[in-house]
Design a protein that fits this description.
There is one protein chain. By secondary structure, the protein is α/β, with parallel strands linked by helices. The protein is built from nine helices and six strands, in the order E-H-H-E-H-E-H-H-H-E-H-H-E-E-H. It has a single domain, classed as 3-Layer(aba) Sandwich (Rossmann fold), CATH 3.40.50. Helix 3 links the parallel strand 2 and strand 3. Helix 4 packs across helix 5. It is globular. Bound molecules: 2-phosphoglyceric acid. The site of 2-phosphoglyceric acid has 11 residues, from helix 7. 2-phosphoglyceric acid binds next to helix 7. One of its GO terms (molecular function) is phosphoglycerate mutase activity.
């Protein structure tokens, strides 16, 4: 018996397009992002990977991606659960900043530490910043981070994975998680048991479903899962890795 999990990063967002650090800022999808989400849903339908339940973050780029994809797959009717625990990694004081400018100002090494190191968070955001979420009603009663490293995301995702997602998988449902580059990297690290060095090299493309078949112990039958469009996924992941490199 295997259990089926589908990970879907949101389609291109407004700040993916303008090359800005995003984190918990609730930016919309671009037109291209909507098209990517719909295409992701078409792939699900075409390959007969039909979710029975969907989990999303509390951010509109993931929520809308799930809706467009599920609509395209004719599964808009399935139950949905949302949690801040699936939100993007909080990018602290970098939220809203231009990636190329930060790279130029602080250098390649620091830029990559902030983007892809496991344990080092970016500098804390000022809670009064226009890009902070401390007064956002959707997080009322929950701790809003000032900045997160990927390690912090693993810590907040793991209990949700165990208490909410694993039981749905074990009941035989195909589970879709529509979330973000770094919250999905946290899940991939956990599932595949990747080292800090290995996960640093993993980049998740926008809008392409990544399917994992899991064994009884929730371990991937095929390590790293399978993208429904592997070629487009490789190109998309390379583009994410290269963000911030282009000189302005
Ligand atoms: O800005 C962000 O929140 C993330 C995802 O878009 O960026 P990065 O890939 O640089 O971690």
């Amino acid at each position: 018996m295997t259990y089926r999990l589908v990970l879907l990063r949101h389609g291109q967002s407004a700040w993916n397009k303008t090359n800005q650090f995003t984190g918990w800022v609730d930016v919309p999808l671009t037109e291209q992002g909507v098209a990517e989400a719909k295409h992701g849903g078409e792939l699900l339908k075409e390959k007969n990977v039909l979710p029975d339940i969907v989990f999303t973050s509390l951010l509109r780029r993931a929520i809308n991606t799930a809706n467009y994809a599920l609509d395209a797959a004719d599964r808009l009717w399935i139950p949905v659960k949302r949690s801040w625990r699936l939100n993007e990694r909080h990018y602290g004081a970098l939220q809203g900043k231009d990636k190329s400018q930060i790279r130029e100002e602080y250098g390649d090494e620091q830029f990559m530490v902030w983007r892809r190191s496991y344990g080092t968070p970016p500098p804390d955001i000022n809670p009064d910043s226009e890009f902070a979420q401390n007064h956002d009603p959707r997080y009322a009663g929950e701790p809003v981070p000032e900045a997160e490293a990927l390690a912090n995301v693993v810590t907040r995702v793991t209990p949700y994975w165990e208490s909410e997602i694993v039981p749905e998988l074990k009941s035989g449902k195909t589970v879709l998680i529509a979330a973000h580059g770094n919250s999905l990297r946290a899940i991939v690290k956990m599932l595949d048991g990747l080292s800090e060095e290995e996960i640093a090299k993993v980049n998740i493309p926008t809008g392409i479903p990544l399917v994992y078949d899991l064994d009884e112990n929730m371990k991937p039958v095929k390590p790293r899962g399978e993208y429904l469009d592997p070629e487009a996924a490789a190109a998309g992941a390379a583009a994410v890795a290269a963000q911030g490199q282009a000189k302005k």
